[in-house]
Amino acid sequence: MANSPSGDSMLDRLVRILDAFDAQNPTLTVNALARRADVPRATTYRLLENLVSHGLLARDADGQVRLGLRLWELANRSASTLNLRQAALPFMEDINQLVGQNTQLAVLHEDDVLVIERLSRPGSVINQANVAGRMPVHLTSMGMALLAYSPTNVLEGYLERHGETMLTQHPKLRHELAQIRRNGYATFDGFIDTSTTGAAVPILDDRGYASAVLSVVVPLGSDLLPAAVMALRTAARGIARALGPAAEN
């Protein structure tokens, strides 16, 4: 693809346009989209027409732009994510009924926690996890469980890129990761919301590494936590079995 005067390719600009949308900005004006994507406005208008025609973006009645349903359709064809979600949903529903709190399924992707599925409950505590949303590794029990059960090269690579941030929040990081591995789960109080505790259990593959993580968020100091952790550990083993030898511990 031809490069722009700035040196980025057409694909680079298309990806930045799609990546400009997030949970806080599900719709954008064209000017805001151009600014967030760092793409000239005239180029944004031209690319926007092509993206809308292919269903990757959509225009609202007021002229605002949002992600199109075609993206959702394509994303849901991902075999690994589809298989993981299908295997996990029955177990997630059981936990959701038992604990009465939101239940999440996530993976480690591009140095973030990427939420694959979330089941909500009326009256449950506040929870910042959103499907297809990203969360910081160092501020979530999900991220810490995933990191604790990552291959050495993944862990060391992550720490090389983000060690300063991690050590600010977790000055005894390696001790914490070792403790998570000994316990088989991670729990952290109030890193994102001060009134909650997150609990997360890794879903292990046949090498003992986390292919995904299952978690709940409960009220701080809740008596639900021990039962939630037990349910998560049972469910994680069941999901690993359902995924087959490639993911089973």
From TrEMBL:
PROSITE patterns from the UniProt entry: HTH_ICLR (PS51077), ICLR_ED (PS51078)
Every HTH iclR-type domain range: 8-69
Protein's name according to its UniProt entry: IclR family transcriptional regulator
PANTHER family tied to this protein: HELIX-TURN-HELIX TRANSCRIPTIONAL REGULATOR, ICLR FAMILY, HTH-TYPE TRANSCRIPTIONAL REPRESSOR ALLR
Domain of life assignment: Bacteria
InterPro entries documented for this protein: GAF-like_dom_sf, HTH_MetabolicPath_Reg, Tscrpt_reg_IclR_C, Tscrpt_reg_IclR_N, WH-like_DNA-bd_sf, WH_DNA-bd_sf
Pfam family, one: HTH_IclR
Keywords: DNA-binding, Transcription, Transcription regulation
Organism: Paeniglutamicibacter terrestris
Chain ranges of the IclR-ED domain: 70-245
Classification via Gene3D superfamilies: 3.30.450.40, Winged helix-like DNA-binding domain superfamily/Winged helix DNA-binding domain
